[in-house]
Amino acid sequence: MIIFEAKIREQTVRLFADLPLKNAAGAIMRVLADVSRKTNIFNNKFVLNFGWNFLFLTERNDSNGEKFWVVETADFNKNPAQDRTDNLTTALVVQNMQMEAVQVAKVKPENCTSRDTILVLKAALESNDIYMHRKEAAKDGDSGWYYGLLDDPDEENHVLADFESMPTYKLIAVCPDAMRVLQLPVGTVAVFNNKTLTALVDGEDNALSFTTEEERRRLGEKQRREFEAEVAAAKARAQAEANGQKPESAE
């Protein structure tokens, strides 16, 4: 488990994850610091809607009895409406995916949370080749997204019982790659072959840019190498200081 730590208004805040998602963790810490200037976030009641995620701060004590605050989020492996986890790996991965999609597509994001619902054609849940289309939300809590079959021979004959409304977090188990497009604006259409994003267009049928699976893999490997180098350098500096040596310059 990797621990990300920050000092916010003299309070120690920690965030736990299984992956070196430094940029995503840093973004959360910066937002918490900004919000703390306007309201009290250290009361065990604070809730932050940060993009797709809902985040909470919970007071704890470490093995030495020192107080710190841990960032928690909904536990999508249990009942997200009731259960929380301090392992933010899934939350940070989704955050990275969605930020990247918005930036690469060069569009203005329109918020969609884990609690918002998506209209799903039940038959599409068992298919590898699907599409998603975002329309105007019909009501509060509706994301506007539709999840359907890419080639649907019964498209004109469906009845109400063929559809269901489900919270967006359930896409994690159904089609993880679909999570990346949820913040894209109304009008967006995304196509998935073998549950991998293969095409993306806006409301006027203009192609939008997106990173491929291979590009994401290479970027992830680069980020891990950079993180591991930073950790090794930090350990070396700490050891040098413990031995009474002057740390080497990073330049």
Description:
The structure is a single chain. The protein is α+β, with helices and mostly antiparallel strands. The chain folds into two domains: 2-89, no CATH class; 97-210, no CATH class. Helices cover 26% and strands 28% of the residues. The protein contains four helices and twelve strands; from the N terminus they run E-E-H-E-E-E-E-H-E-E-E-E-H-E-E-H. It has helices spanning 22-36, 89-105, 171-174, 213-242; strands spanning 2-8, 11-17, 47-50, 53-61, 67-74, 84-85, 117-121, 130-134, 142-149, 163-167, 189-193, 196-201. Strands 1, 2, 3, 4, 5 and 6 form a six-stranded mixed sheet that branches. Strands 10-7-9-8-11-12 form a six-stranded mixed sheet, with no helix packed on it. It is globular. Residues 246-251 have low confidence and may be disordered.
How large is the radius of gyration?
21 Å
Low-confidence stretches: 246-251
Broad shape: globular
Largest sheet: 6 strands, mixed
Overall number of strands? 12
End-to-end separation: 29 Å
Oligomer type:
single chain
Strand percentage = 25-35%
Number of domains: 2
Which structural class should the secondary elements be placed in? alpha+beta
Q: What is the percent of helical residues?
A: 25-40%
- The helix tally amounts to 4
Order of helices and strands: EEHEEEEHEEEEHEEH
Instruction: Return the average pLDDT rounded to an integer.
Output: 89
